[in-house]
Design brief:
The protein contains ten helices and 13 strands. With 619 residues, the chain is α+β, with helices and mostly antiparallel strands. The protein has a domain at 9-129 and 540-616: Rossmann fold, CATH 3.40.50.
């Protein structure tokens, strides 16, 4: 359908697209539509959804992270068009359309959606002036380049086949046959020689010797394990004896520390001392401190009342009679005396508290020593009565087992020596039979010579087929070369034509907008972007200001849009990429597009207090 459709509006419904998880529907009326919303509320996600259904954007860049499915529904010209996105595995995302909308074009993303990641805008920001890839997308010439690459990849394969046929055809088959025959005959000879080397009797002796050697090795390993076990048990015995010595030493130390081991008397003494100190603190220091604190608070309150004028100086607050006791000087002197008395009382209380803590700690030490002594005596008993005697019995047992293993090893070694002597006699007797079999080997070599002659006959038959295959490969290489040259020519023609159309459109748009600061913008013969300032000075994107790079980028996009999408896609989008743009040029761009694009969509940021997304017809 033409972009000149009579449709007055198009609606877009998105779900799980970008940052928008819950379904959201927006309507764009003909003319200017401004999406207003704070940052990070879904403006760009709406544009991504629109781009997904009318353009070509990777589905993994559209589907909301962590969601399995999402969709975009476009209502246009009385019809609905849906694209579904669904996650396959961990990273892959697929898309599926019910019907392609008439305003779809894969080039929309390149030249009608001015997002920050737009290829043209990104090239200018990065200082990239090579526009071959842009021309390929605009002209669809890349499909020819793909065909050329595929065809060129086939040519070396066929050339390699031809080379192998020319160099190795005769030799490969003959050598292959000869090798196979040689392998077969060699295997036969080796099997026969193996039989001659070892008779059934010899094999039986060899097997018995091998068995005895395995048994001998096993016995040695068992003996080694027993010796290792013996050493471990002796080491453990030494550790137990050292532990016993240490335990007894600790017991002696504790017995010397507590003569007569009268722990209960010690504990009772500490208990009585602690209780006496706690009683003294509760009856003497604590009541005294409480009394002093209360008197201090009362005097402080009287002083405050005098300062506020609530009491008459020198008058009793109860009977209103003159009383020296309530003079300012006397109350302050008493307050100072109280502070000293409080400090003295606190010092006494702290000293009692400290002494109680020390006594409790000493009492706890006595309790721990009593439990420790009990544990040490139990440990001494187990070591003396159980663990050390048991270890000594186990050591004696292992030593006897080692002696038995030594006798078994000597017996096996004697048996092996006798069998090896018998085997040597058998080998001497077999040598004569071996010589007879070796004569048979000469006969087999004669048979091999006959088979080599037969292999040559097969090579002659094979050569007839080689010539036919060579002719076929030559024809294939020639046809593939012609095909590649044809599509290379088509690729060049399409891209050159696209460049011409693009440059003509750039000149028209540039002249109509009439921006100052530049005299010419075009793509040269080498597909490189050339920018000339007023006065004819050539410059590069890296030397342009941010505003100038955006200006050039938008001129290129608008030029491409007018050349390729004007009658196909009625949409042009300016996203937040224009935030840093020159206001005057931006207004001229907007006015220019508004006259030529049925649906001009712009996003803009509003304060964070305005949380909802709005679509209005003014900036």
């Amino acid at each position: 359908m033409s972009a000149k459709s009579q449709t007055e509006s198009l609606k877009l419904r998105v779900e799980n697209i970008g940052g928008i998880r819950t379904p959201l529907e927006v309507e764009f009326r003909k003319g200017l539509s401004v999406i207003k919303a704070p940052n990070a509320t879904g403006k760009t996600s709406i544009i991504k959804g629109l781009e997904a259904i009318v353009g070509n954007v990777p589905p993994e860049d559209v589907l909301t992270d962590g969601e399995k499915e999402g969709k975009v529904i476009l209502s246009y010209d009385g019809q609905e068009y849906t694209i579904k996105l669904y996650r396959v595995g961990i990273e892959s995302v697929k898309s599926e359309r019910d019907t392609t909308p008439p305003i779809y074009d894969p080039r929309t993303s390149l030249i009608a959606i001015a997002l920050p990641e737009n290829k043209i805008l990104r090239k200018l920001n990065e200082g990239d002036i090579v526009f071959s890839d842009v021309l390929e997308e605009l002209s669809n010439a890349e499909k020819y380049l793909t065909i050329v690459e595929a065809v060129r990849e086939l040519i070396p394969e066929h050339k390699n086949r031809l080379r192998l046929l020319e160099l190795d055809a005769k030799e490969s088959e003959r050598i292959k046959a000869q090798i196979e025959v040689l392998k077969e005959r060699i295997q036969t000879i080796e099997r026969e020689l193996q039989e001659l080397v070892e008779s059934p009797e010899q094999k039986e002796l060899s097997d018995r010797i091998a068995q005895l050697k395995n048994e001998l090795q096993k016995k040695k390993s068992e003996k080694k394990e027993l010796e290792k076990d013996l050493e471990e048990k002796k080491s453990l015995l030494r550790e137990k004896e050292a532990e016993l010595k240490k335990v007894r030493g600790e017991i002696t130390d504790l017995e010397q520390k507590y003569p007569g081991l009268d722990f209960d008397s010690k504990d009772s003494w500490y208990k009585s001392q602690i209780e006496a100190l706690e009683e003294k603190r509760s009856k003497e220091t604590e009541p005294l401190l409480k009394k002093l604190y209360n008197e201090r608070e009362a005097i402080i309150e009287q002083i405050k009342k005098l300062e506020r004028g609530e009491l008459e100086r020198g008058k009793c607050p109860f009977c209103a009679e003159t009383c020296p006791k309530y003079s300012d000087n006397l109350m302050q002197i008493r307050l100072n005396e109280l502070e000293e008395e409080i400090q003295d009382a606190k010092a006494k209380d702290d000293e009692i508290t400290k002494k109680i803590r020390e006594l409790k700690a000493e009492r706890d030490d006595v309790k721990r020593d009593r439990e420790r002594l009990r544990g040490l005596k139990n440990r001494e008993r187990r070591l003396v009565e159980e663990e050390i005697p048991e270890l000594k019995r186990e050591i004696s047992k292992v030593e006897k087992e080692i002696e038995n293993k030594e006798r078994e090893v000597e017996k096996k070694q004697d048996e092996i020596s006798e069998l090896e002597k018998k085997l040597e006699i058998e080998k001497v007797e077999m040598q004569k039979e071996r010589e007879r079999k070796e004569r048979t080997l000469d006969q087999l070599r004669d048979e091999l010579s006959d088979l080599e002659g037969q292999s040559k006959d097969l090579d002659k038959k094979y050569e007839k087929g080689v010539e036919k295959t060579k002719r076929y490969e030559l024809v294939v290489i020639e046809e593939l070369t012609k095909l590649a040259e044809y599509f290379e020519e088509r690729y060049t023609t399409e891209k050159t034509g696209a460049k011409k159309v693009f440059n003509e459109s750039i000149r028209r748009v540039f002249e109509r907008l009439g921006f100052g600061g530049f005299s010419k913008i075009e793509i040269n013969k080498e597909d490189a972007l050339e920018i000339y300032r007023e006065g004819g000075t050539k410059t590069t994107p890296r030397k342009l200001s941010t505003s100038e790079r955006i200006t050039v980028g938008l001129i290129l996009m608008i030029s491409a849009y007018e050349a390729y999408l004007k009658d196909r896609v009625p949409i042009f989008v300016l996203d937040e990429v224009t935030l840093s743009y020159d206001p005057t040029r931006f207004k001229e761009i907007v006015n220019y597009l508004a006259e030529r694009v049925p649906y001009l969509i712009i996003t803009t940021v509003v304060p964070a207090e305005e949380r909802e997304i709005r679509v209005e017809d003014t900036l």
